[in-house]
Amino acid sequence: MRAGRRGRDGRSPTVRPPAAASPVTAPVKDPVDETDRRPDLPWKVIVLDDPVNLMSYVTYVFRKLFGYSQQKAHRLMMQVHTEGKAVVASGQKEKAEFDVYRLHEHGLWAILEQD
Length: 115
Hints:
Elements: H1 34-37, E1 43-48, H2 55-66, H3 70-83, E2 85-91, H4 93-105, E3 109-114
Helix pairs in contact: 2-3
C-alpha cells in the first residue's frame, strides 16, 4: 500500500500484527534417500507410447541407439505400441540417464526407474 493512502472512511488503514501461530511440527524425513538404500539395483530405461512417432522410426531408433537386431527392436516397439511401454535397457544410473537423454533427443518419450 502506498504511503498517504486513505481507507473508504477517510482514515489511515490500521495495520494489525499477524495472529500468533501455533507451532507446527514438520514430519521428520529419514536422511537416507530411497535410492541410497538400494545402490546395487539396476535402473530401467522405459520407453512410453506416443501418438507422434511412426512404428518404423521407433524400431530404427532402438537399432541405432542400442544395436538391437531388427527382430528385437521390432518386438520392443510392438510392446510399446500394444502395452504402452517397454523396458529397452537397464544398468547403472549414469548410463541409463544417458540412454533416456538420447531417446529424448530422437523424439521418443522415455523415463527412468529403479528396479
